Amino acid sequence: MAHRLLVRRMWTLSVKDIRCLSTSTAASSSFSTSLQSAKTRVSFLSPSRTLPHTLPLTSRREVSFNVQDNEDFTERVINSELPVLVDFHAQWCGPCKILGPRLEKAIAKQKGRVAMAKVDIDDHTDLAIEYGVSAVPTVIAMRGGDVVDHFVGIKDDDELDSFVSKVIGQ
Amino acid sequence: MAALCRGRHRWKRTHCLRVFTRNLTAKYDYDLVVIGGGSGGLACSKEAAQLGQKVAVLDYVEPSAKGTKWGLGGTCVNVGCIPKKLMHQAALLGTAVKDAKKYGWQISGTVCHDWPTMAEAIQNHVRSLNWGHRVQLQDKKVKYLNIKGSLLDEHTVKGLTKAGKEIPGAMEHGITNVALECAGFLTGIGLDTTVMVRSIALRGFDQQMAGLVTDYMEAYGTKFAWKCVPKRVDKLSSGALQVTWTNTQTGAEQKDTYDSLLWAVGRAPETKALGLDKLGIQLNKETGKLIVGADESTSVPNIYAFGDISEGRPELTPTAIKAGKLLARRLAGQSTELMDYDNVATTVFTPLEYGCVGLSEEEAEKRHGKDGIEIYHAFYKPLEFTVAERDASQCYIKVVCERGGDQKILGLHFTGPNAGEVTQGFAMGFQCGATYSHLLQTVGIHPTCAEEVVKVSITKRSGLDATVTGC
């Protein structure tokens, strides 16, 4: 168990190091040096093959979830290490009910490389207004707390796949 | 809830000083604060913001005893016009299904209505409107605060954050158009409904027309308890409600059991909650509504009121919206135009709809004397009722005109299907000062119910049978 946790933390750190290239504090550099040996064991490109232990842990972290409140949004979307698609939808919106399952499918295909946060705009009106949502469905892609892409309205499966791939950076 | 407006007037000195004073001292937080995010409040605040004012809207819905709340948009959007019209439509569709069989549609078995399906569909639409209003306020840069507002003084609004009318009624106590409309659609979707009326129905409306409306409803299946006053309501062990009432004509006491009770006895303004009593704002003792001037001002400077909360005004959405917009323009110094409350067309959406614009026959008689007016009328039959074998006894048109001169139209009344749609066009003619000869010059669209309006020729005075045939 301890072994698995240690490996997971190093996995997380290595991802962060790769994304935040500009930061170079003493703490992170000391981590990065100690990670050199770990990196040889951890193959960033195909984690599922070299480290089967990490996969159940990453998939246990929910890939698709409903946002509960502002705190939850901050924690699981803004501070997420993964890119997150935020699906702003409403109960009264017909197209949202069509797009929802399509998004889930597109996310599932990525096997944990991207997460989806679902926001009901009637329950979280202020949040929706803050992100400039006017029509629904609106999908916003966030990475490192920043909005990197978005779209409004329905998209078909192929369009969604390419949107998601672009967000992940493939 | 209606809107209460406050404005600061520091800019009234000169236009150019306005910008300077706001930047230099910023003594006040807002140029305009609106309490009430309903038809009037939203229209006023958006107009003011568009004219460059710094505006805030306070809208708060106190949860009912059962915890029911609703969103931004006020009475009309949440518990008024919008759900009313949709439920009225649901009932009309029920009647249409019955008519359909006569037109050849093969509908097997009985068609029944599912309340939860309708309620959810309507509530979903209402929620989309709540959202739409929220977005609009954001776009127009109006600050929205979901807090309960009250007035501390003529420049200060206090806000409190925190902590009705949804029972499908089987019995109503009331005489308002709302009461009749509710009873109408409840009957239409298949519920056994009774209306209890203390004195008359549709007070303030033309009484002949009101009679036609209620006659149709009685034929349609709604029960009426005329001239009755409720004395007490007891909850039985079965959960049903036993209502005891007095028949004021016979003096007898009667009682009966109902599943639900709906009190449709008019609106009571929340003047205490608003803190109006402390500010000494003049209210009408009977209704509790604010007494306002022609410019929507109250007895306290800087405080204005319009919409349902103001005394003597029609309780309608379009008048609240227009009054709000004009007030915003006046406060911003852009115009001096006052709201014209005359010639406002309206429609009662009872099972047989009633649309009207202008004076009732009683009011016209009062103002011009019986000899000073000429009334043209007609009982007509909508073409669609023929194949459907529906009774059209209450489908009627009345045009009240001045007797002399050009015979200016004083009032126009129509009962029949789509009365709202029919009346709207004629309201414009009314606004332009239409006369009876204008009506005669207008060629009708055939075959419609509306064309019967331009064809009226039989006068009440002649005593002739007013029944007209289509072709």
From TrEMBL, chain A:
Keyword hit for Disulfide bond: yes
GO biological process: cell redox homeostasis
GO molecular function, a single term: protein-disulfide reductase activity
Source organism, top-level taxon: Eukaryota
InterPro entries registered for this protein in UniProt: Thioredoxin, Thioredoxin-like_sf, Thioredoxin_CS, Thioredoxin_domain
One Pfam family from the record: Thioredoxin
Keywords: Disulfide bond, Electron transport, Redox-active center, Transport
One term under GO cellular component: mitochondrion
Boundaries of every Thioredoxin domain copy: 40-169
Gene3D superfamilies per record: Glutaredoxin (3.40.30.10)
SUPFAM superfamilies in alphabetical order: Thioredoxin-like (SSF52833)
Family statement drawn from the similarity comment of this UniProt entry: Belongs to the thioredoxin family.
Name of the molecule in the record: Thioredoxin, mitochondrial
Lineage of the organism: Eukaryota, Metazoa, Chordata, Craniata, Vertebrata
UniProtKB/TrEMBL annotation, chain B:
Entry-linked SUPFAM superfamilies: FAD/NAD(P)-binding domain (SSF51905), FAD/NAD-linked reductases, dimerisation (C-terminal) domain (SSF55424)
Taxonomy, superkingdom: Eukaryota
Cofactor(s) this protein requires: FAD
Biological process according to GO: cell redox homeostasis; cellular response to oxidative stress; glutathione metabolic process
Positions of the FAD/NAD(P)-binding domain: 30-159, 177-324
Family: Belongs to the class-I pyridine nucleotide-disulfide oxidoreductase family.
Protein name, UniProt field: Thioredoxin reductase 2
Annotated source species: Amphiprion percula (Orange clownfish)
